[in-house]
Amino acid sequence: MLVYAMGFLLVIFQPSTGQFPRVCANTRSLLRKECCPPWDGDGSPCGELSSRGSCQNILLSQAPLGPQFPFSGVDDRENWPSVFYNRTCKCEGNFMGFNCGECKFGFSGLNCTEKQLKTRRNIFQLTTSEKDKFLAYLNLAKNTLNQDYVIATGTYTQMNNGSNPMFRNINVYDFFVWMHYYASRDTLLGGSNVWLDIDFAHEAPGFLPWHRAFLLMWEREIQKITGDENFTIPYWDWRDAEDCAVCTDEYMGGRHPTNPDLLSPASIFSSWQVICTRSEEYNSRQALCDTTSEGPILRNPGNNDKSRTPRLPSSAEVEFCLSLTQYESGSMDKMANYSFRNTLEGFADPRTAISNISQSGLHNALHIYMNGSMSQVQGSANDPIFVLHHAFVDSIFEQWLRRHRPMLEVYPAANAPIGHNRENYMVPFIPLYRNGEFFKSSRELGYDYEYLQEPALNSFQEFLIPYLEQARQIWAWLVGAAVIGGIITALLKGLILACRKKTKGTSSEIQPLLIESEDYNNISYQSNF
């Protein structure tokens, strides 16, 4: 009963994170191209009177892009979010949000000065009450109107360049489904023409940082609508699984007794309606998904094409992927070889790291295995298993970051597919986040994974870690500098000794009369040095 009851709770809404802020989805904001709402705390735009932030021009990355998208000026997501807004709130310190009214991930308190570290846990390690609460929170999100954000139902051109706003209300859960769709949808070129080879959240370097930000925002939204500040997304560790262990009525929904493509009527998720799953229809109409209900969640785990995905991923495959030292390589798309990102995403063989788009490994394998709503990229977030799956994928990304400890410069700064360079803003988030901001340890973003937790460090150790890490990154240069320094020292010592011998051999009659010979040697040493 708890699961059903919580779906209809009334809650007090607070600012959230995501696409178009409701206060900016109007003609005035679109024509001015400005989204700098006031912070309720002092009534000033971006909380400027309280030094939380200020309204500033957006600084777009000028780094060159890869060749995958050969157009310019045809897609609203290019140089996000400049088609809609070129001025937004720039928050200071640990403040965050479309109006600087929130704290950055990992911080809390009135002034966002209190550090936090929450733990994501294995869903099978939750108690019955914890698991039921998680399911209830999901259902609550599906039945709660998002008070702070709306979604666009038309392109900027269809909105007559802002003079005819086209936005619609949406519930909290579907809001994130729509965001995932919008980031991965095809480009509408007019007439019946579309460009398929574009994705701002997949098939390129930003895949892992984008989904990391997405889950953090989703997690925070659940915390807000429930008032449960300690909520964290559980994960499903699918390594070596023989079947879909979470596909039961006790967890994410079992199989329907008469229709294997549907969920059991005993599951709360059997009544959920999906959105944004008909990409071919949207493309033919040159339209965006307008969140119209499109039927129930489909799922038939294991009855997928075995030639493409014969089984769920193994521990050995995950471990091989973690051993790869390059985050990205080559074309930086789904054809990249020896790329950790491409191998984890599933476009490269998890045993060789060679690109093979005829097969689906690791992350992709799970989506294909589910054989339903999860298996179509744009609408995959409709199935609540999506968050469990991506939480575990994120934990593998976190393992790689901890094992290899890459510097930010490892993330490509240029020539990645559109939207995926280090300084590109992620589509379609407002407030704005760059890809590189989430290429860091989860602990810096305020969360950890239960199976990755390490002994707590004292404050002195925490202070030293960043400096020791910097030293580790440049150890080869340090060794080289030490060798060169030794050679230079030896040469200088030889010169000094030679000068001393020359000085001793000089007649006292021609030495300076006002300087003792010992002082003269010291000056010669300093001068030579």
TrEMBL record:
The record's InterPro entries line, in alphabetical order, gives: Di-copper_centre_dom_sf, Tyrosinase/Hemocyanin, Tyrosinase_Cu-bd
The residues forming the signal peptide are 1-18
GO molecular-function terms, A-Z = identical protein binding; metal ion binding; tyrosinase activity
Q: What is its EC number?
A: 1.14.18.1
Xref: Gene3D superfamilies? Di-copper center containing domain from catechol oxidase
Co-factor(s): Cu(2+)
User: Superkingdom of this entry's organism?
Assistant: Eukaryota
Annotated GO biological process? melanin biosynthetic process; pigmentation
Pfam families for this protein: Tyrosinase (PF00264)
- What this protein is called in its record is Tyrosinase
- What organism, scientifically named, is this protein from? Brachypteracias leptosomus
